Amino acid sequence: MTGAANAEKAALSHLPAVWGLVWRPARWCVTAYVLTTAVGVVAPVAAAWLTKSILDRVTQPPVAPSAVLGLAVGLAATAAGTAVLPQLNRYLQARLSRRSGLLVQDRLYAAVGRQQGLRNLEDPLFLDRLRMAQQAENAPALVLDSVLGLLGAVAIVVGFVASLAVLSPAMTVLLLGSAVPALIAQLWLARGQAAAYWEISPRHRREMFYATLLTDVQATKEIRLFSAGGFLRSRMRAERLAAHSVEDRLDRRTLVVHGGLALTAAVVAGVGLLWAVRAAADGRLSAGDVTMFIASVAGVQAALGRGISDAARVQQSLLLFAHHAAVQAHPSDLPRAVPGRAAPPLRRGIELRDVWFRYGPEHPWALRGVNLTIPCGGSVALVGRNGSGKSTLVKLLCRFYDPTRGAVLWDGVDIREFTIEDLRARLSVVFQDYMNYDLSAEENIALADVAGEQESRRVQEAADRAGIHHVLSRLPQGYSTQLTRIFTGESGPDAGVVLSGGQWQRVALARALVKGGPDLLILDEPSSGLDPEAEQQIHTQLARHRQGRTSLLVSHRLSAVRDADRIVVLQDGVVVETGHHDSLLAAGGVYSGLFTLQARGYREARPGEDVHQPMVRR
Ligand SMILES: Nc1ncnc2c1ncn2[C@@H]1O[C@H](COP(=O)(O)OP(=O)(O)OP(=O)(O)O)[C@@H](O)[C@H]1O
Q1: In 433-473, which ranges are E strands?
Q2: pLDDT at 282 over 80
Q3: Which regions span the lipid bilayer (predicted)?
Q4: Pocket test for ligand 1, best of 121, 370, 390 (most atoms within 8 A of CB)
Q5: pTM for the full model?
């Protein structure tokens, strides 16, 4: 079997799933749609027969007026139905398409949510597939539409062919024979179209990326300042032009195929017309027969054309839907323990045992044989130069990735044995690259605990601990104020506000603190954007909050980590030093070097310079 035939067979295997996606959300709508479509199919054949009968009766005396009148009323009713039904049909089609689209979208984003690690969302192939799947929202409704169109076309062809076969068997064979190459050509075109979409998908993704940059207020600052807009626009244009060249190639192919098919159809119809005129002149066909012949040839050709296009559309929609199905079936980037155990409350501690990790086989090692223990109730600080692997270690603790070698143990149990949701429910984290959500102040904080009790009191307590309550409570709508201006007007009661960088950081901190008593609190650079006074305050408050709780603090501000029970120094993915502040300072190693350098930076202010409050407490 060829690759194309395999792809087609695989595409057809999605038919039951596609049917479920239109039938389940819109049963009545689908039923009514099928019925109106069926009536719409019968109407043109009935109209052709009624016209023939009227003409035959009118041109062959004696004329029976009552019979002709009855046929005329039937023809008028058919014409009225033919005029109205398409409107109803369109309404039903749009309605079922919306409902099905919603279900398709729900399923897609639920499948993305089942990807519990980060690896797939960093994989360009998965992202291209995801983009194709996003475009498949209307595929099930389109398949239903096209299948019904195809069945209708078959019914029309059968109806007209029966009439035509009586008048001219040779013409019937010629018409049907001409449909075979047309079908093959259309299926070939549809396959090419699906392949072209796949080919230009990465280009569309990059184009979207540039378009988002050019309209994003955050990015715009740098883009305007550095006058980089022209450069980005030219990149965006280049992506669009590259996609155009693929589309042009496809359009040329379509033009040649469609042109050839239209020419063939015109020649076949012309030959038929010549034959019918001669047969009428010889007296072999009546006037009614000639109109029936012409209507049948036109009807068969139109129905064949529509049917063939519908068959191609079914194939194309199924090939597109195959990406949706592939995303749904995509294995999670993290193996799930079966049956997964619930992560119990932490009793002894968390241990990284000989952990090696790299982001992919082609990447260098980010962690190389890390051994580290975070005792229950203890505070550990992680320090080290840029790129030494601190955030990577945090990501392994959250199980966004699994170690390439070694294990992360929770009270001695490999965390891979726990259900991921349970494990994460026991953690709270402020990430270095925390998010600013375009939501209200309360939602921004409560987001960390949507499953928990949505008590405003708890949100406000967390905000207080993060030192942001006094700001949020004084906003125009208090905690209900939107922390964004992109969805709300410039003024008025609904106007949103924009927080400063440091205020956003405190909101992120409040989000981590709202989760009632996590077993492990991870703070990855929680104060990098704060002013010295605020940083001092936050660290004092956090030190109080972390007392008796298990915590991991990652920070380049060494003054902030000196009180930790244990300080771990990472260098090139290896733990090079572990100990208390004083012992590490006395050892004169990496930590001591970094600390002395930082402390000197604060002490070496020029005379008369306004020195901020020193970071290093003596
Ligand atoms: N998603 C990723 N894919 C590939 N490599 C990555 C990824 N994230 C980090 N790395 C690489 O892993 C190494 C460790 O990075 P990591 O972010 O853990 O360092 P860090 O110690 O937190 O640095 P910093 O102090 O600058 O925050 C770096 O070499 C980095 O380039």
Answers
A1: none
A2: yes
A3: 30-51, 63-85, 141-167, 173-198, 255-277
A4: 390
A5: 0.80
Boundary (domain end) residue, out of 450, 482, 513: 513
Q: Cα dihedral angle (512, 513, 516, 522), rounded to 10 degrees?
A: 60
Name the residue range of residue 499's domain: 435-513
CATH number for the domain that contains residue 573: 3.40.50.300
Q: 386 and 490: one domain?
A: no
- Residue 8: the pLDDT is 66
Residue environment code for 360-397, b if the CB has 16+ CB neighbours within 10 A, otherwise e: eeeeebbbbebebbbebbbbbbbbbeeebbbbbbbbbb
Pocket of ligand 1 (CB under 6 A): 122, 359, 363, 366, 384, 386-392, 432
Predicted confidence at residue 493, as pLDDT, reads 64
Residue environment code for 345-356, b if the CB has 16+ CB neighbours within 10 A, otherwise e: ebeebbbbbebe
Q: Is the dihedral of CA 390, 616, 543, 432 positive or negative?
A: negative
409 and 465 share a domain?
Answer: no
Q: Does residue 172 sit in the same domain as residue 218?
A: yes
Residue bearing the CA closest to ligand 1, atom 28: 387
Atom 25 of ligand 1: nearest residue by CA position: 386
CATH of the domain at 181: 1.20.1560.10
Total tally of structural domains belonging to the chain: 3
pLDDT of residue 133: 93
In a domain, 44, yes or no: yes
Whether 378 is covered by a domain: the verdict is yes
Residues 393 and 505 in one domain: no
Q: Does some domain include residue 255?
A: yes
Q: Report residue 289's pLDDT band, with 50, 70 and 90 as the boundaries.
A: confident
Q: Would you state the pLDDT for residue 268? A: 86
ipTM of the complex: 0.98
Least confident of 17-21, 156-160, 461-465, 584-588: 156-160
For residue 334, is it within any domain? no
Ligand 1 centroid to residue 567 C-alpha, Å: 20
Instruction: Give the pLDDT confidence of 376-395 residue by residue, as tens digits.
Output: 988 899 999 999 999 999 99
DSSP state, 491? S
CA of 366 to the centre of ligand 1 (A): 7
Structure tokens at 93: 């089609």
Task: Quote the distance between the C-alpha of residue 140 and its chain's center.
Answer: 17
**How many residues does the structure list for the chain?**
618
CA of 603 from ligand 1 middle (Å) equals 31
